[in-house]
Design goal:
single chain; elongated; Serine Threonine Protein Phosphatase 5, Tetratricopeptide repeat
Length: 321
């Protein structure tokens, strides 16, 4: 964007004006060429970008009423159907595209992803084989293959597929996350590399910071875990799980109940129903000798989960005190 001296409010107005101007232009194209499917398709994509899915679907259907042999429009319509939870309709629309282009990469990829969603893995692989045969460099195909292998419990082939996805597209955030998670489950420090790659690819995504911090926590790297949780809180000051985990590390690893209490209080202020934070707050208060407040915290945890054994034990310890 150019430097116009406008503040955020003015920038918002500029964006809205640009969007309105685009819609006027698209409307004019349809009015000038009502029998041109591309005019309707263009406005459908505009509506989809702006999350006006009903209008987007109607325009896509209008385009197909003019030319029903457009596989790209059938796939666009299928995406809209899937987004609005009309899974059966999405499947039928992808089938239409496949009849037009049986060897089409996009159509087979969409069908593979749909079959994966439905848990039909042999069908998933059948369509992925077509995609990879036609385009051996398609990263989404390898990612989908990895997800299917993961669901089937074949960790080795899942890892291999995700690695291939990142080789084809080094910026594939979700493939790096999957590689990190699979290696974290094996307590392999390759997880650190993969989570850091995910952070490098998209520094604004919270998921990768939390995954890395939690892996550090699980492998007793307390300073690294705390540092990464704090990084995440700089990104999102309201990330409650990070607050809780910082408190947990301060309480059990650093033996600093007073410092831990600060973080549990912050977590509870944002999420009063966070049961573990309520319990750990009670434990901090018990250690600090604030027994009345500890009882109240344990009772709050039990109100949220009457079967929480640790809170029951906490109240038991404080009976008569």
């Amino acid at each position: 964007m150019g430097s116009s001296g406008c503040g955020p409010k003015a920038e918002g107005i500029e964006i809205e004006t640009d969007s309105a101007a685009e819609l006027l232009r698209l409307n004019a194209q349809i009015e000038a060429q009502p029998q041109n499917p591309d005019a309707w398709f263009a406005r459908s994509r505009y509506f989809a970008r702006n999350q006006l899915f009903d209008k987007a679907s109607k325009d896509a259907q209008q385009a197909l009423s003019i030319d029903s042999l457009r596989a790209d429009i059938w796939l666009h319509l299928a995406d809209l159907s899937f987004t609005t939870k009309k899974v059966d309709e999405a499947g039928q629309q992808i089938e239409k595209a496949l009849k037009i282009e049986p060897e089409g990469v996009d159509a087979n990829l969409r069908m593979a992803e749909l079959q994966y969603y439905l848990g039909k893995y042999p069908e998933t692989f059948k369509h992925l084989d077509v995609v990879i045969r036609k385009n051996p460099y398609q990263p989404r195909a390898y990612f989908t293959k990895g997800m299917a292998f993961k669901e089937m419990g074949d960790t080795g082939l899942a890892i291999s597929s995700f690695q291939t996805a990142t080789e084809q597209d080094p910026g594939y955030f979700h493939a790096w996350i999957q590689l990190g998670q699979l290696h974290a489950a094996k307590r392999s420090d390759l997880a650190i590399l993969y989570f850091k790659n995910a952070i490098d690819v998209n520094p604004s995504k919270q998921e990768s910071y939390y995954a890395l911090a939690y892996y550090y926590q699980q492998t007793n790297r307390v300073p690294e875990a705390m540092s990464t949780y704090l990084q995440l809180l700089e990104l999102d000051p309201k990330h409650v799980p990070s607050m809780h985990n910082l408190g947990y590390l301060l309480l059990f690893e650093k033996k600093q109940a007073d410092e831990a209490l600060v973080w549990f209080d912050k977590a509870i202020n944002l999420d009063p129903e966070f049961i573990q934070a309520q319990y750990h707050r009670g434990y901090c208060l018990e250690l600090l000798g604030q027994k009345t407040e500890a009882r109240q915290a344990y009772q709050t945890a039990l109100d949220l989960d009457p079967n929480m054994i640790l809170a029951q034990q906490g109240l038991g310890r404080l009976k008569g005190n």
